[in-house]
């Protein structure tokens, strides 16, 4: 999809969207358009009881007085509520309304005089929201493509933002557009089926980041066995697809006094049957996105490098497929992790924590980072606790937890902190090994999972984000179409920008 920015003028034809503030607040351009149509906008808003609330829309077809095919009114709410997130939402809303109406359209960016954002910033954020909503994963829909050739349907391909500070808006959008590229890269990885994306092919996809200055190292099974990643390899041993660990390094701040990187670690189970502790058949196809944490880490490294962030960062993803077979890990097996700690595997469907355990230890041992953040679709229990609105946050450091929470709120990817303490930690004690991989059945499954991970974290700030409830959307929202969300890419990019750049 192509975006352009131009000085404001009333289009003579086609489709135009107009931003409307609360209480039917038309700006100067909207008022001019209303006059040209003989007051059609005012009458339509009154008849439809349209107010201009956030994301409220109203369409006027072929209004008299102009050659326009239609006018779309998009609400942005009260002046004090017009934030970057509100405008991104408006952009996504107008894209959804226009996508099947035409192949190109214009947007009159017309905010109240007392709005906090400049016109340039507003136009860029609206375009960003439209870009995020425009994501489609339809590469395998051959029937639709054949039908389109016979009876092509409109699909919005060009959006022109009309705003006084057009050049400034274009500059502001360039950075956001690069972030959208990173989000789309992550969404694509999660959307691909497991016969296309498996450990080897997912590792190969990360090589694309080298174009932006990311050093990519792929550790194969031979290397993993040599260094002792027994926990991760135990998960992979039932599959014909061999494990990989990908290490991505981006050094964007060589002049920093503290050269230690921030470290991001992602769970990459490219398909999770549950192993010998096999899942039920219903919905198992969803388990292609059990590598969502790894996709977020890859997307974050893409985003940081693409915008040349002044930060040193390392991303590590553990990639395995969890399958039942004659060679698969069994309940009751004991594995030795990279840390030297032993783990009794009670449930082979609690495999993500085994992958992360070795990757967390490797990150600390090799890179000595200033902090670590891991992301994983770790537990179904987090959905019971938080639904699909928040990711679960666990941390051993209050400042880190607060900073992640703040970053999440700024980009509309909220996290909610849950408790950790020794009482939960005792749930994974076992007489057979140093620990077991699940609790004793006392509930709090997400917390127990976090306590397990904490045993592989030394004395440095660490956070675990459980994204099981937010990695995949069952329905459309303003800026996230149904499907892979890439939750966490924007959060971590903002976290770095606000707290670790410079």
TrEMBL record:
Binding site for Mn(2+) 2: 267, 272, 290, 351
Domain Cytosol aminopeptidase positions: 347-354
A Gene Ontology term for the protein's cellular component: cytoplasm
GO molecular function: manganese ion binding; metalloaminopeptidase activity
Pfam families: Peptidase_M17, Peptidase_M17_N
Active-site residue list: 279, 353
Record's catalysed reaction(s): Release of an N-terminal amino acid, Xaa-|-Yaa-, in which Xaa is preferably Leu, but may be other amino acids including Pro although not Arg or Lys, and Yaa may be Pro. Amino acid amides and methyl esters are also readily hydrolyzed, but rates on arylamides are exceedingly low; Release of an N-terminal amino acid, preferentially leucine, but not glutamic or aspartic acids
UniProt subcellular location: Cytoplasm
Membrane-crossing segments per the record: none
Enzyme Commission (EC) number: 3.4.11.1, 3.4.11.10
Principal location listed in the UniProt entry: cytoplasm
InterPro entries linked: Leucine_aapep/pepB, Macro_dom-like, Peptidase_M17_C, Peptidase_M17_leu_NH2_pept, Peptidase_M17_N
EC primary class: hydrolase
Biological process annotations from GO: proteolysis
Function: Presumably involved in the processing and regular turnover of intracellular proteins. Catalyzes the removal of unsubstituted N-terminal amino acids from various peptides.
Protein name: Probable cytosol aminopeptidase
Natural source organism: Azospirillum doebereinerae
Gene field: pepA
């Amino acid at each position: 999809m192509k975006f352009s920015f131009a000085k404001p003028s009333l289009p003579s034809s086609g489709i135009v969207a107009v931003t409307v503030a609360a209480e039917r607040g038309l700006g100067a351009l909207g008022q001019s358009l209303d006059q040209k149509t003989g007051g059609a906008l005012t009458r339509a808003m009154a008849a439809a009881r349209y107010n201009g609330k956030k994301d409220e829309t109203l369409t006027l077809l072929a209004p008299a007085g102009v050659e326009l095919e239609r006018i779309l009114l998009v609400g942005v709410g009260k002046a004090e509520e017009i934030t970057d997130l509100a405008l991104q939402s408006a952009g996504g809303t107008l894209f959804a309304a226009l996508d099947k109406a035409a192949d190109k359209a214009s947007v009159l960016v017309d905010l109240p005089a007392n709005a906090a954002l400049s016109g340039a910033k507003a136009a860029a954020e609206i375009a960003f929201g439209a870009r995020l909503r425009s994501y489609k994963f339809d590469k395998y829909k051959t029937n639709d493509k054949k039908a389109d050739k016979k009876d092509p349907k409109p699909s919005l391909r060009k959006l022109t933002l009309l705003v006084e500070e057009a050049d400034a808006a274009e500059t502001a959008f360039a950075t956001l557009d690069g972030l959208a590229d990173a989000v789309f890269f992550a969404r694509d990885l999660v959307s691909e089926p497991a016969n296309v994306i498996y450990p080897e092919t997912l590792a190969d996809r990360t090589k694309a980041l080298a174009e932006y200055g990311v050093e990519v190292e792929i550790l194969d099974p031979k290397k993993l066995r040599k260094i002792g990643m027994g926990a991760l390899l135990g998960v992979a041993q039932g599959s014909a697809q061999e494990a990989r660990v990908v290490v991505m390094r981006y050094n964007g701040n060589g002049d920093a006094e503290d050269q230690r990187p921030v470290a991001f670690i992602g769970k990459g189970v490219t398909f999770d049957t549950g192993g010998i502790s096999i899942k039920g058949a219903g919905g198992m196809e969803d388990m292609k996105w059990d590598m969502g944490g790894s996709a977020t880490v890859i997307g974050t490294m893409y985003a940081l490098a693409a915008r040349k962030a002044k930060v040193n960062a390392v991303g590590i993803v553990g990639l395995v497929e969890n399958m039942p077979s004659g060679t698969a890990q069994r309940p009751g097996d004991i594995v030795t992790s990279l840390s030297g700690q032993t783990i009794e595997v009670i449930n082979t469907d609690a495999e993500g924590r085994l992958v992360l355990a070795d990757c967390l230890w490797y990150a600390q041992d090799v890179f000595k980072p200033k902090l670590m953040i891991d992301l994983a679709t770790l537990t179904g229990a987090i959905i019971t606790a938080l639904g699909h609105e928040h990711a679960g946050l666990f941390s051993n450091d209050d400042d880190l937890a607060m900073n992640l929470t703040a970053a999440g709120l700024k980009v509309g990817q909220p996290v909610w902190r849950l408790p950790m303490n020794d009482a939960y930690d005792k749930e994974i004690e076992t007489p057979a090994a140093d620990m077991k991989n699940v609790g004793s059945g006392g509930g709090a499954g997400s917390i127990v999972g976090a306590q397990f991970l904490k045993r592989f974290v030394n004395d440095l700030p660490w956070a675990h984000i459980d994204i099981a409830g937010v990695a995949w959307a069952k329905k459309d929202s303003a800026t996230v179409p149904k499907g892979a969300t890439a939750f966490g890419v924007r959060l971590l990019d903002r976290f770095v920008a606000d707290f670790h750049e410079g």
